[in-house]
Amino acid sequence: MKKYFNYLLLIGMIITASASAQNTTPIVGKVWSLEKANAWYKQYKWINGADFLPSTAINQLEMWQADSFDPETIDKELGWAESIGFNTMRVYLHSLAWEQDKEGFKKRVDQYLAIADKHKIKTIFVFFDDCWNKQAKIGKQPEPKPGIHNSGWVQDPGDPNSKEEANFPALKKYVKDVMSRFKTDKRILLWDLYNEPGNSGKLTSSLPLLKSVFTWARSVNPEQPISAGLWAWDYKELNAFQALNSDVITYHDYEEPQWHQRVIEMLRSHGRPMICTEYMARTRGSRFENVMPLLKKENVGAINWGLVDGKSNTKYAWDTPLKNGEEPKEWFHDVFRKDGTPYKKDEVDLIKKLNDIK
C-alpha cells in the first residue's frame, strides 16, 4: 500500500511539473535546451560509479582539510574503482573547508581531480547538503561511533545556517569562487548544487537557498551542466523547482527495480538525460544485480552510494545500528573492503561485465 501511495505521489509530481509548474516555478537563468543536454550526454560512455569518500575520512571536512587530506588513499581506492570500469565519482565539498583555507582548498580539489583523471574517472561535485548532523566544525573530526551509519557526516551549511539568509553572501562567494576556478575543467562531469534539499525535517525552508545556489551557478555559466537531484516525491514545490531548473535530471532511488522502473518512466517525460546519483541499498532490495542492469538498459547513469568500507560506516543501514560494531549480516552500501578485496565477488564481476572489462 505504501508503494502504491508513493507511486500516486510520483505521478502527481510529474503531472504538476508538466502541466502547471512551468507557470508557477521560477526558472533561474538559461536552462540548457533539450538538444544541448542530450548532445552533452551522448559524448560519454554509460556513466557509472560511486559516491566517493576515502575510507580514512569520516566526512567531507576530514576529506578536504589540509591536515587530513589523503591523496595516497584516494589514489589507491580510485584505482580499485578503475579496475571494475567505474568512470564517475560523486564527491561532496564543504564550505567550511573553503572558508578556512580558500586557496589551499582549491589546490586540493585540483589535486583530487588529477588523481581521478589518472584513473580515467570524471567527477560530480556536490555543494550543499541537508543530511545528517546539523553542525560542522573545522579541525579534528570525531571518531566513528561503532556500528552507526554516517555518524560523523555533516550538513552544509548546516541547521539553522541554511535557513538564515544572512549567511547567503558568504555562501555565494564560496560557490562562485569554486565554480569559477573549475568552470571549464573537462575533468568535472557535472555540478550537483544541493543534495536532498528539505531533508532532516527542513522541508521547504531549504527552498530559498536552493533557488539562490542555482542563481549563483547560472551567473558563473560553467561549461558543465548543473543539477540538483530529486529524492522525495511528496516534496512537490522543491521537486518542480529542481526538475525545471536542472540541465540534466538527477535523482535518488533506493527501492527495488519495479519501483525504480516507474521512476525512470515518469522522469523521462522531461526529455532530458538522467543520472541516478544514489542507489544500491542491499537490505532494501536495491542491489547491483537487479538495478544496475536496468539502469544500463535504460541508458540512465548509475552512481551507487559508497566505494570502500571506512570511517563513514555506511555498510550499516540507516535505521539499523549495531552499537557493538560487529559485521552486519549483509552490508547496506559499499563495494570493497579496506584491503581492496570485494565484499561480493559476483557483484564486481557483474559490474566489470556491464563495463566490458575482461
Automatic annotation (TrEMBL):
GO BP: any one term: xylan catabolic process
Disordered: annotated segments: 139-162
Signal peptide: 1-21
Keyword field contains Chloroplast: no
InterPro entries reported in the protein's UniProt record: GH, Glyco_hydro_5
Residue runs in coiled coils: none
A Pfam family reported for this protein in Swiss-Prot or TrEMBL: Cellulase
Single GO MF annotation: hydrolase activity, hydrolyzing O-glycosyl compounds
Entry keywords, A to Z: Carbohydrate metabolism, Glycosidase, Hydrolase, Polysaccharide degradation, Signal, Xylan degradation
Domain Glycoside hydrolase family: 84-307
Domain of life: Bacteria
Family to which this protein belongs: Belongs to the glycosyl hydrolase 5 (cellulase A) family.
UniProt name for this protein: 1,4-beta-xylanase
